[in-house]
TrEMBL record:
<keyword id="KW-0143">Chaperone</keyword>
<dbReference type="Pfam" id="PF00118">
    <property type="entry name" value="Cpn60_TCP1"/>
</dbReference>
<feature type="compositionally biased region" description="Basic residues">
    <location>
        <begin position="476"/>
        <end position="485"/>
    </location>
</feature>
<dbReference type="InterPro" id="IPR012720">
    <property type="entry name" value="Chap_CCT_eta"/>
</dbReference>
<dbReference type="InterPro" id="IPR027413">
    <property type="entry name" value="GROEL-like_equatorial_sf"/>
</dbReference>
<comment type="subunit">
    <text>Heterooligomeric complex that forms two stacked rings.</text>
</comment>
<comment type="similarity">
    <text>Belongs to the TCP-1 chaperonin family.</text>
</comment>
<dbReference type="GO" id="GO:0005832">
    <property type="term" value="C:chaperonin-containing T-complex"/>
</dbReference>
<dbReference type="InterPro" id="IPR017998">
    <property type="entry name" value="Chaperone_TCP-1"/>
</dbReference>
<dbReference type="GO" id="GO:0140662">
    <property type="term" value="F:ATP-dependent protein folding chaperone"/>
</dbReference>
<dbReference type="InterPro" id="IPR002194">
    <property type="entry name" value="Chaperonin_TCP-1_CS"/>
</dbReference>
<keyword id="KW-0067">ATP-binding</keyword>
<feature type="region of interest" description="Disordered">
    <location>
        <begin position="463"/>
        <end position="485"/>
    </location>
</feature>
<dbReference type="InterPro" id="IPR027409">
    <property type="entry name" value="GroEL-like_apical_dom_sf"/>
</dbReference>
<keyword id="KW-0963">Cytoplasm</keyword>
<protein>
    <recommendedName>
        <fullName>T-complex protein 1 subunit eta</fullName>
    </recommendedName>
</protein>
<dbReference type="InterPro" id="IPR002423">
    <property type="entry name" value="Cpn60/GroEL/TCP-1"/>
</dbReference>
């Protein structure tokens, strides 16, 4: 019935909030800037930490982008995209979470004028995708590969990568100590480098340097039995029965972690009765020891034959400090695993970003029209990394960036920020290295997030599913509905 009726078609329920078009895009872009503000100051070795307190008063101190964003409890739908990429960066490569967030926000900031101007988002997206493609290709081209067959050289490389990852953390002062430990730990794993075979146990008290690595499984002593004080505290070549029955009052038969780790490491299988103890169901290890660690008794199973397992015993003061130490070690472990899997590295401290920026700027000059401006905007956005590293160190960013641009124009491709001397330095020679995969992943994810946010030009908020609004009213209506039908 096309009668030319002017009445608007009502598609959405009353109270539905929609906003669309350019204003919607701009508001999404602005929301992402707020997210970036939250993590901006944590980037790099001179970055600051954040102290976050949740609803229940639990305090967390962290320097890790993904952790901070997770705790922020972001509700803005577009801004949540940035939280998601930080999280996936963390899961995929374990480092570069602050960088990925900053890059995505800066991409959006640089392209905002074009959106305001009314340039079609698809044009912008096309330019950004091709810039990312070029940048990734360039990283692959210039990254440095270290020979795997030279074990000593490989190990040195790994220690340096681990140290770079720890530079920006609270434990930077002990990075030599911990980077050796992390590399040692990862080296103990088998070829697949399963992360879960490195246990980290926090034992409060003592100095950070008293932390150590146990080749095998370690856990807090969870079982005791009558007269155990009299028993020897060390057994060589013991056979281990893994029992899922309670022998004594304090047996923790449901402690899944102890169970899984021990089975995988020592072999044997879990028994539910003591009736059929044959040799093949028993596990083995070189040494069993009961040791005092701080105020706790610990059981160590060392030299487990079946699996390559190790446990890092962390010592230290405040709980929050140890939690952050654990997260930092996790970052470093991830980096080392990555570096073993792909032995290709680039120089950090903004060096790789400056080089890509120069490359893309040069490239943009060869193409006409809007694409030139957009790829130029992308190149400019990459400078956020060295700029922020300078800002966080209290340096004059404009000055340092000018020096860096000049140096890169002359072919100094690994020049980046020297955080110790308020200057620029060849960060390849200075051993500020990062696995290329971390940078590739960060660039791809950041650019995809920016494109995703750009391709959303309308948000429709269903009033019923909205979390905001009057809590009583919203809930009541939601609950009442089904009965009305
Ligand atoms: P992210 O979560 O992105 O990994 P970080 O706080 O770990 O954030 O900072 C990483 C940045 O700091 C990278 O760009 C890295 O190259 C840089 N960086 C690390 N160590 C140094 C150093 N010694 N000198 C200059 N830059 C460094
Ligand atoms: Mg890092």
């Amino acid at each position: 019935m096309l009668t030319g009726c002017p009445t608007p078609v009502i598609l959405l329920k009353e109270g539905t909030d929609t906003s669309q078009g350019v204003p919607q895009l701009i508001s999404n872009i602005n929301a992402c800037q707020v997210i970036a503000e939250a993590v901006r100051t944590t980037l790099g070795p001179r970055g600051m930490d954040k102290l976050m307190v949740d609803g229940r008063g639990k305090a967390t101190i962290s320097n890790d982008g993904a952790t901070i964003l997770k705790l922020l409890d972001v509700v803005h739908p577009a801004a949540k995209t940035l939280v998601d990429i930080a999280r996936s960066q963390d899961a995929e490569v374990g480092d570069g979470t602050t960088s990925v967030t900053l890059l995505a926000a800066e991409f959006l900031k640089q392209l905002k004028p074009y959106v305001e101007e009314g340039l079609h988002p698809q044009t912008i997206i096309r330019a950004f995708r091709s810039a990312t493609h070029l940048a990734v290709k360039k990283i692959r081209e210039i990254s440095v590969t270290v020979k795997k067959d030279d074990k000593k050289e490989q190990r040195e490389l790994l220690v340096k990568c681990a140290a770079t990852a720890m530079n920006s953390k609270l434990i930077a002062g002990q990075k030599e100590f911990f980077s050796e430990m992390v590399v040692e730990a990862v080296m103990m794993l088998d070829e697949l480098l399963p992360l879960k075979m490195i246990g980290i146990k926090k034992v409060q008290g003592g100095a950070l340097e008293e932390s150590h690595l146990v080749a095998g499984v370690a856990f807090k002593k969870t079982f005791s039995y009558a007269g155990f004080e009299m028993q020897p505290k060390r057994y060589d070549q013991p056979k281990i029965a893994l029992l899922n029955v309670e022998l004594e009052l304090k047996a923790e038969k449901d402690n899944a972690e102890v169970r899984v780790k021990s089975v995988e490491a020592c072999g044997g299988s879990i028994q539910t009765s003591v009736g059929s103890m044959t040799d093949d169901v028993l596990g083995r290890c070189e040494v069993f020891e009961e040791v005092q660690v701080g105020g706790e008794r610990y059981n160590f199973f060392k030299g487990c034959p079946r699996s390559h397992t190790c446990t890092i015993i962390l010592r230290g003061g405040a709980e929050q400090f140890m939690e952050e130490t654990e997260r930092s070690l996790h970052d470093a472990i991830m980096i080392v695993r990555r570096a073993i899997k792909n032995d290709s590295i680039v120089a950090g401290g903004g060096a790789i970003e400056m080089e890509l920026s120069k490359y893309l700027r040069d490239y943009s000059r060869t193409i006409p029209g809007k694409q030139q401006l957009l790829i130029g905007a992308y190149a400019k956005a990459l400078e956020i990394i060295p700029r922020q590293l300078c800002d966080n160190a209290g340096f004059d960013a404009t000055n340092i960036l000018n020096k860096l641009r000049a140096k890169h124009a002359q072919g100094g491709m690994w020049y980046g920020v020297d955080v110790n001397n308020e200057d620029i330095a060849d960060n390849y020679l200075a051993c500020v290295w990062e696995p290329s995969i971390v940078r590739i992943n960060a660039l791809t994810a950041a650019s995809e997030a920016a494109c995703l946010i750009l391709s959303v030009d309308e948000t429709i908020k269903n009033p019923r599913s909205s979390v905001e609004g009057p809590p009583g009213g919203g809930r009541g209506r939601g609950r009442g509905r089904p009965h009305a039908h």
